[in-house]
């Protein structure tokens, strides 16, 4: 009992030294050596004291309760990922001319989040990228400044603050992460690499143990206001949705989102436009600027049905099965103004270790004026509208925080009756930290 009390006292003394300064690490080793020399502790007990002290200090730092390190450091979270990609694309033009493209790519993203206080969190992120393209953080081998192993650029990917004054209320502003702006089960409308700029207010509330509701509303700056007489291009959104747990295995999540893109009609397209919407989206001799014909006031219902262990009765170990669907209609265009996506996702909910797997299939269709052509997934026919596409994706875990991905798209351009298909194959090696 006396020996146990001595060990507890030694641990307390060491933690007390650490509380004064982390520079006492060397002195702690000397203290343990002295206790061993005097016969107070054995060598094995000294190592045990050192191990238990280290574990306690780690736990205190992880929970933000350590006195030996500044709070702002303890409240910081560093995260990132690296992706290596081989990409093959087969294109077939209307004149039956075929082209095969083989490229290598790399993507790096690094993010830092810090809890400023109990109610405010700030985040910043940097990433690789090509010419500021909002829909891609990839860089292509040999394509930077003429190739020959020249250096790639690093760009600001996000910079935002989140304020949660109440458990059911949040305010987010800055260059934000897409998941903080709205919920989407597929990337029918928004490419997942886009980081919108503006401010959003979010509400969430548990009605009971089975049902919760959520809502987001805010404004996104698409093109800034200038000294000219052209008003800024804005996107205003309102999303309302709910999650309902039917039973232990079945749950539903759905939303209805309204987007109002103002001051798009008559403006010139972005340099990142896919030039697929109605109107002169590329300069011509008669119109040197080009212009959009319509605004984009979109109605977007979405639904996700989740089933846990769907094939348990058959003896198959499948953790999750989700059915996904979205529809969009641009009320500002008279025709060719709708689109939808349908599909499923099956396997492990997350790819975290060796043997985890997930397969996804999505069929997507967008008529040419359904959404603004700077928004959709850039891998589906180059991000164009006026397309239909099949996508099959397989992910397989190679170990902790690393996995392989195989993503295959088969897409057609439905604009103007052209039926020439495009095949895109992406083989990825992903590493997260």
What tags apply to this protein structure?
433 residues; mainly beta; Porin; 2 domains; 16-stranded antiparallel barrel; 5 helices
Characterise the protein shown here.
The chain is 14% helix and 46% strand. The chain has helices at residues 2-20, 25-37, 43-62, 71-74, 178-181; strands spanning 76-92, 98-115, 120-128, 139-140, 154-166, 169-175, 197-206, 211-223, 233-245, 250-262, 279-280, 291-292, 296-308, 320-330, 338-347, 357-366, 387-399, 402-413, 421-432. The strands form two sheets. It has a 16-stranded antiparallel barrel. The radius of gyration is 27 Å and the shape is globular.
How much is the radius of gyration in Å?
Answer: 27 Å
CATH superfamily of the largest domain: Carbohydrate-selective porin OprB
Shape: globular
What is the C-level CATH assignment of the largest domain? Answer: Mainly Beta
Number of domains: 2
Helix content: 10-25%
Q: Helix count, per DSSP?
A: 5
Spatial strand order of the main sheet: 1-2-3-5-6-7-8-9-10-13-14-15-16-17-18-19
Judged by helices, strands and strand pairing, the structural class is mainly beta
Which consecutive residue ranges, at least 5 long each, have pLDDT under 50? 19-24
Query: What does the average pLDDT come to?
Result: 86
CATH third-level topology of the largest domain: Porin
N-end to C-end Cα span: 44 Å
Give the tally of β-strands: 19
| Helix and strand pattern | HHHHEEEEEEHEEEEEEEEEEEEE
Sequence-ordered SSE layout with sheet pairings:
Blueprint: H1 2-20, H2 25-37, H3 43-62, H4 71-74, E1 76-92, E2 98-115, E3 120-128, E4 139-140, E5 154-166, E6 169-175, H5 178-181, E7 197-206, E8 211-223, E9 233-245, E10 250-262, E11 279-280, E12 291-292, E13 296-308, E14 320-330, E15 338-347, E16 357-366, E17 387-399, E18 402-413, E19 421-432
Antiparallel strand pairs: 1-2, 1-19, 2-3, 2-4, 3-5, 5-6, 6-7, 7-8, 8-9, 9-10, 10-13, 11-12, 13-14, 14-15, 15-16, 16-17, 17-18, 18-19
Helix pairs in contact: 1-3
């Amino acid at each position: 009992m006396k020996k146990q009390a001595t060990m507890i006292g030694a641990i307390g003394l060491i933690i007390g030294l650490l509380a004064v300064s982390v520079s006492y690490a060397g002195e702690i080793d000397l203290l343990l050596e002295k206790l061993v020399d005097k016969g107070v502790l054995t060598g094995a007990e000294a190592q045990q004291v050192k191990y238990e002290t280290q574990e306690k200090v780690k736990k205190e730092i992880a929970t933000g309760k350590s006195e030996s390190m500044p709070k702002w450091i303890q409240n910081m979270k560093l995260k990132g990922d690296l992706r290596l990609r081989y990409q093959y694309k087969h294109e077939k033009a209307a004149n039956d001319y075929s082209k095969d493209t083989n490229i290598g790519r790399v993507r790096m993203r690094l993010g830092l989040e810090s809890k400023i206080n109990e109610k405010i969190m700030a985040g910043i992120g940097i990433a690789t990228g090509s010419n500021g393209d909002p829909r891609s953080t990839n860089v292509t081998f040999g394509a930077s400044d003429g190739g020959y192993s020249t250096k790639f650029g690093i760009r600001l990917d996000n910079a935002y603050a989140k304020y949660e004054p109440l458990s059911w209320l949040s305010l987010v502003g800055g260059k934000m992460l897409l998941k903080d702006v709205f919920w989407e089960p597929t990337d029918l409308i928004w490419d997942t690499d886009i980081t919108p700029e503006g401010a959003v207010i979010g509400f969430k509330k548990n009605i009971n143990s089975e049902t919760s509701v959520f809502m987001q509303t805010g404004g996104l700056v698409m093109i800034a206001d200038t000294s000219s007489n052209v008003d800024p291009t804005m996107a205003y959104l309102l999303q309302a949705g709910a999650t309902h747990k039917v039973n232990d295995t079945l749950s539903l999540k759905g939303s209805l989102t309204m987007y109002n893109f103002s001051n798009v009609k008559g403006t010139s397209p972005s340099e990142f436009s896919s030039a697929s919407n109605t109107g002169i989206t590329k300069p011509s001799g008669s119109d040197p600027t080009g212009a959009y014909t319509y605004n984009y006031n979109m109605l977007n219902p979405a639904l996700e049905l989740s089933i846990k262990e769907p094939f348990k009765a058959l003896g198959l170990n499948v953790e999750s099965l989700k059915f996904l669907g979205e529809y969009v209609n641009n009320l500002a265009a008279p025709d060719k103004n709708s689109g939808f996506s349908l599909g499923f996702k099956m396997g492990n909910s997350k790819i975290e270790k060796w043997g985890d797997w997930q397969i996804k299939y999505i069929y997507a269709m967008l008529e040419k004026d359904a959404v603004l052509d700077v928004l959709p997934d850039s891998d589906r026919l180059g991000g164009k509208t006026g397309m239909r596409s099949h996508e099959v994706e397989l992910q397989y875990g190679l170990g902790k925080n690393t996995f392989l991905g195989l993503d295959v798209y088969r897409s057609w351009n439905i604009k103007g009756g052209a039926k020439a298909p495009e095949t895109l194959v992406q083989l990825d090696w992903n590493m997260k930290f």
